[in-house]
Amino acid sequence: MILSSLLTGTQIALAQIRAAKMRAFLTVLGVIIGTGTIIGVGSILAGLDGAITEAIRSFGANTIIVFKFPAAFRMRHLTPEEWKRKPLTVENARAIAERCPSVQYVSPYLFPDRGGFLMRARYKGNEVYQLNLGGTEEGYAASVEMKYGRFLSVTDNFRRAPVVVIGEQIQKALFPELDPTGKWIEVAGRQLEIIGVMLPPAASFPGQEDRRALLPYFTMKKMFPGARENMLVVVAYPGKLAQAIDETTMVLRQERRVPYDKPDNFWVSTAQQMIDEFRKITSTVALVMMVLSSIGLLVGGIGVMNIMLVSVTERTKEIGVRKAIGARRMDIVLQFLAEATALTFLGGLLGMLFGWLISIAAGLVFPTLPTAVPLWAVASGLLVSVGVGLFFGIWPASKAARLDPVEALRYE
Fold this sequence. Notes:
There is one protein chain. By secondary structure, the protein is of the alpha+beta class. The protein has helices at 2-19, 21-27, 29-57, 80-83, 90-99, 154-158, 168-174, 217-223, 241-255, 271-314, 316-324, 329-365, 375-401, 405-410; strands at residues 63-67, 103-110, 120-123, 126-129, 132-136, 146-149, 163-167, 184-187, 190-198, 212-216, 230-236, 267-270.
């Protein structure tokens, strides 16, 4: 009996929607926007999570990143103590390599003392700006795959050779379709010989262009005498990551004279830890997105309730006729709940289409940003839209069910 009432109510609801399409569309506009936001933002977050997770993992499962303060995804400002910390040094890297049996090798990575956006690489009439310039050693080659030529060697570093290994984006801009090995280019005002071209990391960050320009560590130090900020890339032997972290931490505490009762004055992280930090941020963004989209759903729900109250008034005589021929209160309630639910369900479907279009548009604007509509976003969007219809349809449905049939039949 209830199923029959639901089917009848749904048929009546669909007939009412077809009879007033524009009114129905405006009624559920808030539901469309709210559901579309859930689908669109959910798809971007899902794609971003997958891409950045893979990008971080491309550092290697056994790689440890060491810096003087947290350099990964942070949800807080640096403290005054963190800003005042002394930089890591190449001597710290040497100490880790010598005294940590679980560490396979260590590569210091020296940052320039002025931003890469001020630097350029130039070859004849072609230029590339915003270089990701750094000085490193041969051990860094473990996380690099070469397209042309070779990576930096011990000899390059010892001789302070004027050589550079460039990223693929620089190669394509300066030497389209050519192997530039052996060519001399101007980097940050100095003439350097290209000895190799690196392929982009296995999974780059969305929108990231490979503008790396890597010099031998001491060549970089010679070009930028004031450069002091070092990052240490530590690679552990397979299966010894935890031991390598402990040994690296112990050696750095000794090297940096940290008292036994004081916390570390440096930051040590692995790829998995950075992924966990990133997912904390995306979960917060997802929560904010749900709160914002709920505002649109609330507006849509109020619109549905208002239009259903108007519908009860317009169809008072129809309700009286149905009651006069034997319809129960439950039948009337189910009829109007089915109509409200059908409205919001269709709004949810339109919202899914809207969210999918947002996802497609984001992919067109940012070609390297992967987007994927997650199943959880689709399911939650439809469930929430149906829930809105049920919740905001209860009052109009109960009002219709309480009408006196005699008074309803007299209504004009």
